[in-house]
Amino acid sequence: MELLGSTLTTTYTRPKTSHFLPAISTMASSYRNTQPALGLSPSANMWRTNSYYKSSSALPLTSSAQRDNFDLVRANTTFFPSNRTMLTTRYTPDDWYKSNHNNYRESESSRKSAERLRKDTIRLMQDKEQLTRRTQENTSKNIAERVNDIVFWRSELSHEIDNMVTEIAALSEVKRRLERALAETEGPFQVSQECLYHREKRMSIDLVHDDVEKDLIKEVEVIRSCQERMRRHLDRAIAQLASNRGAQHELEKDMSDKVSAQRIDDRCHYLRNTSDGIGYYRGIDRIEHAVSLPDSWSKFTDDNILRSQSERAASQKLRDEIEILLNTTSNEMWNQFNNVNVAFTNRISETADTKSNLQAHLAKTLQEIFQTEMLIESLKKALREKENPLKVAQTRLEERTRRPNIELCRDNPHHRLVGEVREIEDTIQKLQERLMEAENTLQTLVKTKVALEHDLSIKANSLFLDQEKCMSMRKSFPSLPRLVGYA
Fold first, then answer.
1. Which of 17, 296, 421, 448 has the fewest C-beta atoms under 10 angstroms from its C-beta?
2. In the predicted model, what is the mean pLDDT of the chain?
3. How do residues 116-133 score in pLDDT, each as one tens digit?
C-alpha cells in the first residue's frame, strides 16, 4: 500500500478503493480553480493501477448501505498537488524565453506602428483643417456674390413693380369710367325698348309703323352698337388687367422668393463654426434640391421684367383707345335721343275692360300662390316633425343589435320597431310626393302670374304709351359727362 502524500508515477482519475483510507477525489476537485485542467485522452482516463483493481476486488460490499457509506468516505479523501506533477508540465525553459522575446518584438513593432499612425494622423488633421478653412472661406465668398446678384435683381424688380402698379391703377380708372358709361346706357336702352315693346303690343289700329317707331328702332340700334363696342373694350380691359396683375404677381412672387433667398443666404453668409443653430443633416449633400442654374435663374427674372414691360405698353395703348371710344359713343347716343323726342307723338288706345279682367285674374292668382306657399310650408314642417320619430325608431333598432349572444332575439319589439320605421318612411315618402306636387303647382301659378303681369303691362302701356308712359320715361337722359364715364 502506498503512503499518503508520497510522489506517484501515475495519476489516478479515480481514488483507490480502500476500506480504511479516504478517497482523494475531494482534494483533486479543490485544485480545479487554481490550476488549468489537463486534456487527457480517453485511454489515459481509463488507465488504472493493479493495486486499484486489487483493492477494489478485495473490498467486501454486502449491502447497498455499506456501499453508500464507502462513497461518502471516498468523497472526503484529501488530494495533494504532488499527485498531478507530471501532467501540468507543458513547456521547456527555452520555450519560456522565446515567448518573452516574441512579446518584446511584437510590443516594439506595435509601438512603432502606433507612432507612425499618430504622426500621419496629426499631419492629415492639419492638412484637412487648412483645406476645410479655405473651402469655407470660398463658400462664404460665393454666397456673398450671390447675395449681391439677388440685391441687383431685387432693385430691378422693385422698379418694374412700381411702374406696373401705376399702370394698373390708371387702367383700372379708365375701366371704371367705361363701366359707368356702359351702365349709363342701360337706362336709355331700356326706355327705347320699353317704348317699342309696348307699341308692338298695341292691338288693331294702334300697330302703326310711324316715324316714332322708326326713330325708336334706330335709337335701339345705336345704343346697342355703342354697348357692343364698350363691352368689347371692357373685356379687353379686364383681360389686360388680368395680364397686368399676372405679370405683377409673377414679379411680386419673384421678389418674395428673392427676399427669402437673400434672408437665407445672408444668414448662411454670417454663419460661423461658433454660431447657434448649426447641426448635422445627414445625407443633405446627396439630395438634389436645385431647380435652376445661374443662367436660367437670371433669365427667369429678366423674362418676367420683359413680360411686364410688354404688358404695360399694351395697357397704355388700350387706354387711349377707350378714351376715343367714350367720346364717340356719347355724341352718337345724345343726337339720336333728341331725334326720337322731336318725332315722338301721342297715340292712346284704351282697353279698360281687358285691363280690369287681367287685374282680377292676377289678384286670384296671387291669392292662390299665397295659399300654395302656406301649404308647402305646412308640408315641410310635417316632414321635419317626422325626422325625430324616425331617428328614435332607427336608433332603437341599432341599439338592440348590440344585445349579446342569444339575447339578440327577433322578438315583438323588434318587429314593431321595423314596422314603425317602414311606416314613418312611407309617410315621409307620401308627404314628399305631395310637396313635389305642391311645388310644381306653385311654379305653374308663378308662371301664370308672370304671364298675366306681362300681358297687363302691355295693356297698361297701350293705354298710356304716348303721354303718360313713353314721354314720362324719356324726360331724363344721361348728360355727356356721365356718358363718358364721369360721375
1. 296
2. 78
3. 999 999 999 999 999 989
Task: Give the Cα separation of 188 and 220 in Å (integer).
Answer: 9
Q: Count Cα atoms within 13 angstroms, Cβ side, for 374.
A: 6
CA distance 470 to 464: 8
How far apart (Å, rounded) are the C-alpha atoms in residues 474 and 339?
12
* pLDDT tens-digit series, residues 392-443: 887 877 877 777 877 677 778 778 878 888 888 888 888 888 889 988 999 9
pLDDT number for residue 382 = 86
Let me know: does 240 contact 318? Beta carbons within 8 Å.
yes
**CB neighbour class for 199 (10 Å; exposed up to 12, middle 13-18, buried from 19):** buried
Question: Length of the chain in residues, anyone?
Answer: 487
Cβ pair 248, 308 in contact under 8 A: yes
DSSP 14: S
Residue type, 147: V
Within a 10 A sphere around the Cβ of 47, how many other Cβ atoms?
Answer: 13
466 Cβ contact partners less than 8 Å away, ≥ 6 residues apart: 344, 345, 346, 347, 348
